[in-house]
Queue: 3 jobs
Job 1
Amino acid sequence: MSPEQEVAKRRTFAIISHPDAGKTTITEKVLLHGALIQKAGTVKGKKSGQHAKSDWMEMEKERGISVTTSVMQFPYADCLVNLLDTPGHEDFSEDTYRTLTAVDSCLMVIDAAKGVEARTIKLMEVTRLRDTPIITFMNKLDRDVRDPIELMDEVEEVLNIACAPITWPIGMGKSFKGVYNLLEDTVILYSTGQGSVIQEERHIEGIDNPDLDAAIGDYAAELRDEIELVRGASHDFDLDLFLAGELTPVYWGTALGNFGVDHMLEGLTQWAPAPQSRATDVRTVEAADTRFTGFVFKIQANMDPNHRDRVAFMRIVSGRYEKGMKMRHVRLGKDVRIADAVTFVAGDRAQVEDAWAGDIIGLHNHGTIQIGDTFTAGEALKFTGIPNFAPELFKRIRLKDPLKTKQLQKGLVQLAEEGAVQVFRPLRNNDLIVGAVGALQFDVVVHRLRTEYKVEALYESINVATARWVMADSERELEKFRDKAYDNLALDGANNLTYIAPTMVNLQLAIERHPEVRFLAIREN
Ligand code: GDP
């Protein structure tokens, strides 16, 4: 197969959804269809429904399992699909955001009983930064859900994206009969009790087909009326608008009943973009470029309890990875030979022989790789757009045993490198302030400091409302600002100057007083 063909058949996507909308269940069914697992239901243990903290501990225990779902590659239709998992726990995570920089499209899953929920809104904001194409799956049609037209209106209004229904549901809850495919003029009938297998679907061609009346009775006439209405009131599918992130094809079904997920996969493989270009500080790198490039979007520690290693997840942007190849670690200006990159197909860490643009590979990291690092075939360029988010929660971290300051600092810097947490050191004192986007991160950090760095640490509350990275057009201006705002400034884990605001009002005043300084809530590596 030519390099162009290798790239053209790849589809790299992630699922965005609010917790409990059905992401895990859909992932299971996607893998079932991708023939990775025989019987759906083996991706993750049943949720305990307990507090998020125990969820994380459990995740830690089940790491072997949850990690295999970090990146899943499987064939579908004529494509090779990469599904990138986003962290599953209740907490809000920066990892999720960064994972979204490594995909070319997203599947948005909505619980049709609930509609658009908070996390989905936030994640959609992130996909907007790159106009990522979005496919929508309305889930849980086997329950009594909200009116389908109202749901689409809500998506259009709240998320500001046009909806083009590809399928349309017939009934819901106990009387969910299946879906009508508006493009193909076909009804696909749903049968219950087949959630764990690939169903043999019954198709009825043509909405006016009398077979339909025989199959679903009065629902047939209702469907005909409704479809007329839907066709008049909704958008037609338009590939260009989809690719521009302005219109989403919408599918309906039930992940639990394994109905509709394959319809969505058909759409995804047919329409979602092949690996896309990515911007660097020097030029735009096209996926078809034969020179190897890639960037690291995630670092995960202790994936294998037997090897205390850390794995850096790299998205290949162009060219080909071959086992044993040499790559340039651009930030360090060093060439490294990579013989043991890993992938996570079907539950085992398999060694990758080769991989192409759009694929994700895992590099063993012994502390030299950071989130945002670029690797190339020798060229000095750096991928841009891998975000760090200003934390919203802050605590002072303190040692139980003051003699272990070195370990604490080392641990925090490494955890900050991974993106597990952010660390700020005020200019005016020796405090260590931990900043997080979600509360769960605090627990994770103390737990990991104890188990991995043998440091007992505890938190104290601190009067910080928010933080902003600060930049100015010239060093001189930044120096001046540094003197004036000294008491509010700190350095983050990578020594970037940060404004630490005790209140939002304080931040507002600082912004007004210093128009020469930019206060950034998102920083790109
Ligand atoms: P996640 O938090 O988004 O990963 O959601 P899960 O996949 O864990 O699903 C949350 C809950 O919704 C679980 O109890 C699932 O069994 C249930 N669920 C998922 N899909 C469906 C569906 O299509 N119908 C029904 N009735 N329940 C579903």
Job 2
Amino acid sequence: MPSTSFREVQGKAPVMSSIAEPLRQSLPRQQLHAPDERPTFSIVAPVYNEQELLPEFYRRVVAAIEPLGEPFEIVLVNDGSRDRSIEIMHELHERDPRVKILNFSRNFGHQLAITAGTDYARGQAVAVIDSDLQDPPEVIPQMIERWREGYQVIYGVRAEREGETAFKLATASVFYRIIRRITNVNIPVDTGDFRLMDRKVVDALASMREHHRFMRGLSVWVGFKQVGVPYKRDARKAGETKYPLSKMLKFAMDGITAFSYLPLQLATYLGFTIAAVSAIGIVLAIILRLATGINALEGQATTLVAVLFLGSIQLIVFGIFGEYLGRIYDEVKRRPLYIVSEALGFEGEAPQK
Ligand code: UDP
Ligand code: MG
């Protein structure tokens, strides 16, 4: 939970402000400059090798949010980029102190970058958006409108998707339908991490410190008043996707294992089914042999097929156990979720993790 900041303490003691005036004047510019209130909106964006898109991203976010006339901050999380992203982020921060930077010590992955961004964000409403401009920042004001109506989680629903491969579209569609069916959280179909969350939701998410984070699932799991806003997901403007097939598979496994025990129970179901089928088979084989003299299960091939079949099923089940066991191991190690090597523009103490 974020601890009380300098600003909050000041806010609680207005009487002090006149006495403290000379002191305030001697404070470094950074603290003087920051308005004495928390930003209304935080825009959180994970960044991994997006040097071509960052300036444009910044420009479009400001163009979309500034007209609302309320204080806001842009929290950019550099997830161990190997290009010039961090230099560009520094330039943006120099020019506009509303741009705040979290620099990870290495690449921790998209979901953890989002987590760090929402941990540090101070806004009353926090928007999470990809920095590759696939999610248009212009949709955020529409989300804010719903927030003002009292909704607490406003998620973007991809009504249309441009520039995605047929393979990605097909696998995503199958995955979201499977996960909806087998988990006990109703993750809406065709949603990603693009969403606006109320402070209460962000605080609830911050209290959940699991390592294999499937944020779009967690933000549904917490409950609250939720609503979708349809939008057109654009094609990536530059650079390439950082989600190759291997990462997508791992992400899918994170989503399923985090919300469902069904894969573990598969062993039980399979066991009972195979036991029932073999019991029938055994009885049949005996009857056939005694009544007609036919040897129904003849030869080595039959034995081999049965052994290999059952052996492979057992291996698969072990593998599924392994998926859960490895994740449990990651949890019990209690390592921090991410390591921030540099935090720029944030006031007060860093949130405790
Ligand atoms: N990203 C990140 N860390 C990673 C991979 C991606 O912070 O390890 C960021 C990336 O910069 C982008 C967002 O997460 O802003 C989504 O990634 P990407 O566009 O590659 O995924 P896709 O849209 O293709 O699913
Ligand atoms: Mg993208």
Job 3
Amino acid sequence: MSSPSYPALSYELYPPRNAEAEESLWTTIRRLEVTRPDFVSVTYGAAGSNRETAIALLRRLLTETTLKPLAHLTCIGSSRADLTAIVERLIGGGVRGILALRGDAPDDGDAPDGHAPEGDVAHADALVRLIREVEGQRTAQLAAGRVSVGVAAYATRHPASPSMEQDVEVLLAKEAAGADFAITQVFFRPSDYAGLVRRARRAGVTMPIIPGVMPMTSTRRLKKLSGLAGIDVDQGLWDRLEGARSDEERRRIGVAATVELARVALEDGAPGIHLYTFNEHAAALDVLDALDLERPPQAGLAASL
Ligand code: FAD
């Protein structure tokens, strides 16, 4: 008998920068854990700037919680040998999900032109191949299960791409290299996700594409992120958030807009929702409650027996 399928649920976390941030992150983790997400992802600084805190967080997630971590890994500015070593550490440490990314060069890199060196692995598709090579050599880990490899996708054009068509060709190359699924960059218009999926399927991409949704409750964060990712925030939403008479009202408007974005994506066939939490549980849980996402009665092996 086939079991019913439920939309996937996942959260993005970033490694804490200090002890205080770590304490508050763990409150967030415990509050999110009870919602039984399919995985939680842990970001990784470009060129491995926070490598040890990321690995420490992944280790604690694996040993102290019921959560399955998805480790982000960036290749920009790293040597092939370094990347091989980190992938070996992740797999050897029990991580079974890696999000293969290029990352962005920091402006204050130590190369003479002010940019960080590109590294030996220039793009995410090559990183996917490297992960699969390392995995293939670790036969001792085979019984512990195959590594699931995710990649980034863009519902609006990647800022360095000449076109959205190139973005889906790149996505196809990542799948051909061995990626199992993609998670989108933030997007702010409900139709953007369906547009990406349509272009991707037409180009031959078959892997699941999970919409990455950011709770749109803070104009400061929206401004920062839309600048970083090169995506314009919907002007109508921006005006409504700016015009809110209280934090409470702004929060209500932002949660409602986020729920609408996620609901349209799910109606358009999204396999689930990935929530960018910024290490705060309150807005993510507000979105989840209002979305009323159907979840399996109990996660884990016992449920499937
Ligand atoms: P790529 O797929 O390599 O694409 C980068 C650019 O190069 C694109 O313009 C693409 O069109 C072009 N390109 C790709 N492949 C080729 C090729 N073979 N030949 C020529 N051109 C090519 N950043 C972090 O630093 N840390 C994180 O933890 C992190 N997490 C993220 C999570 C998600 C879900 C997403 C969507 C993004 C994340 N990012 C993170 C940001 C990401 O690193 C940037 O968006 C970066 O600019 C591109 O990464 P990518 O993996 O898509 O790169």
